[in-house]
Write a structure and sequence with these properties.
The longest helix is centred in the N-terminal third of the chain and has 36 residues, at 45-80. This protein is 17% helix and 30% strand. The chain has helices at 45-80, 107-114, 147-150, 334-346; strands at 20-22, 31-33, 118-125, 128-136, 142-145, 155-159, 165-174, 179-184, 194-195, 206-211, 219-235, 259-261, 264-266, 274-282, 294-296, 301-309, 329-333. By secondary structure, the chain is of the alpha+beta class. The strands form 3 sheets. Strands 3-4-5-8-7-6 form a 6-stranded antiparallel beta barrel. A 6-stranded antiparallel beta barrel has the order 10-11-14-17-16-15. A hairpin with a 7-residue loop joins strand 10 (206-211) and strand 11. It is built from 4 helices and 17 strands.
Length: 350
C-alpha cells in the first residue's frame, strides 16, 4: 500500500474523508472543517488567477509603451516648434526683444523685433552736428553707442523708431574700447534689445545690421560674419590731426570714422591717441551713421556694436566724398560691452 503524503493544510479529496483543517486559528489550534468551516477551494482556482493577471499585465505594458512613445513625440514636436524654454536666447539674464517663432531666422523677423530698440543719435558740438546710432538696453532709456559718436558733444538728441525725440546725457565713456553709455531724460517703457553671446559667433553666421546711415533712421542691411578677432585701431576721441572733429560721422559730409588695420590707415588720419580692440568683421553694408548701431544674429540678439567701416574715396568726383560700403565693416563684440557696463554706469571710464 502506497502512503499518500499531503502537506499540512492541503484540501481533502473525495477518497479522503479527513475533514479540512485550517492553520489560521485564532486560539493557536487548528479548526476542523465542519459545515461552518472553510470549504476547499475549487481545483481550477489557481489557473483562473493566473489567467486573470495576464490581460492586466499586457494592458500595463501597452500603457507604458504608449507613454514612452507619447513623451518622445511631445519632445520632438517641442524641438521642431522651438518650444524648449531653456534654449539660449529664450529669456534669462538679459531681457529684450525676441523674434517670433514664425519669423525666426529671417531678416524681416529680426528687423521687426529689434528695430524698436535701435535709435538715431544726433550730437551737436562746436565743430557741427554728427549722426550716429545707439542700442536701447533698459526701459528707462540707457543707450549704448560708440564713444566717437558722442565725443565732444555739447548736446545730444535721440530719436526713437517711432519718431519721438528725447534729450540725453552722457553717463560714462570708455575711449579705450570706443564705447559710451547715455541716458534719456524722463523716458520709460522703452523697447529694449537682448544682448547675446559673441563668443558663440562663427565665421559664416548670418547677421543683420540696423542703424541710421546718413541719417536714414531704421535702415536694415544683412550679410555674414566674415572674420573674427580683427585688430582694429581707432582714435580715442575726436581730436584727429585734421582738427575738424573727424571722429564724428557727419550726415552727408562724406567723412568716415578713421581706423587702422594691418598697418594701414583708412578714412583719414587716426591721430596720435589711438586704441586697439578685437572686432567682428562683417560684409553687411555699413555707412556713415551706422556707428553705435547693432549687429544682430538671426535669433534677434545683439552680438556687436558697429564701430568702423571702410569706404574708399571717390577720386572721380574730386569732391573728397566717400563711396558706398564695400563690405568691410567692424563691430565691437557684445561680450566686451557686457564686461564694461558696470564701468560705464559708474562713469569711471569718462
Amino acid at each position: 500500500m502506497t502512503e499518500n503524503l499531503r502537506p499540512s493544510g492541503a484540501h481533502s479529496t473525495d477518497q479522503d474523508p479527513t475533514p479540512y483543517t485550517s492553520p489560521y486559528a485564532y486560539d493557536g489550534t487548528a479548526h476542523t472543517g465542519t459545515a461552518g468551516g472553510y470549504p476547499p477551494p475549487p481545483p481550477y482556482a489557481p489557473t483562473s488567477r493566473r489567467r486573470a493577471k495576464r490581460p492586466v499585465a499586457l494592458l500595463a505594458a501597452v500603457a507604458l509603451a504608449a507613454g514612452v512613445i507619447g513623451g518622445g513625440t511631445a519632445t520632438l514636436v517641442g524641438q521642431l516648434n522651438g518650444g524648449d524654454s531653456g534654449a539660449p536666447g529664450s529669456g534669462g539674464a538679459v531681457n529684450g526683444t525676441t523674434v517670433s517663432q514664425s519669423s525666426k531666422g529671417t531678416v524681416s523677423g529680426v528687423a521687426e523685433a529689434v528695430s524698436p530698440a535701435i535709435v538715431e543719435i544726433g550730437a551737436a558740438s562746436s565743430a557741427g552736428r554728427s549722426t550716429g546710432s545707439g542700442v536701447v538696453i533698459t526701459g528707462d532709456g540707457e543707450i549704448v553707442t560708440n564713444n566717437h559718436v558722442i565725443s565732444g558733444a555739447q548736446q545730444i538728441q535721440v530719436t526713437l523708431s517711432t519718431g519721438k525725440t528725447y534729450t540725453a546725457d552722457v553717463v560714462g565713456t570708455d575711449p579705450d574700447k570706443d564705447l559710451a553709455l547715455i541716458k534719456l531724460r524722463n523716458a520709460s517703457g522703452l523697447k529694449t534689445a537682448a544682448l547675446g553671446d559673441s563668443s558663440q559667433v562663427k565665421v559664416g553666421d548670418q547677421v543683420v545690421a540696423i542703424g541710421s546711415p546718413e541719417g536714414l533712421t531704421g535702415t536694415v542691411t544683412s550679410g555674414i560674419v566674415s572674420a573674427l578677432d580683427r585688430d582694429v585701431t581707432v582714435a580715442k576721441d575726436d581730436s584727429g590731426s585734421s582738427g575738424q572733429g573727424q571722429g564724428q560721422e557727419r550726415q552727408g559730409g562724406g567723412q568716415q570714422w578713421p581706423f587702422e588695420f594691418g598697418g594701414q590707415q583708412f578714412n583719414g588720419d587716426t591721430g596720435e591717441e589711438t586704441t586697439t580692440y578685437k572686432a567682428l568683421q562683417t560684409d553687411a553694408s555699413l555707412n556713415p551713421g551706422n556707428s553705435g548701431g547693432a549687429l544682430i544674429n538671426m535669433d534677434g540678439e545683439i552680438i556687436g556694436i558697429n564701430s568702423a567701416m571702410y569706404a574708399p574715396s571717390s577720386s572721380a568726383s574730386g569732391s573728397g566724398s566717400a563711396a558706398g560700403s564695400v563690405g568691410l565693416g567692424f563691430a565691437i563684440p557684445v561680450n566686451t560691452l557686457k564686461a564694461d557696463l558696470d564701468t560705464l554706469r559708474a562713469g569711471d571710464g569718462s
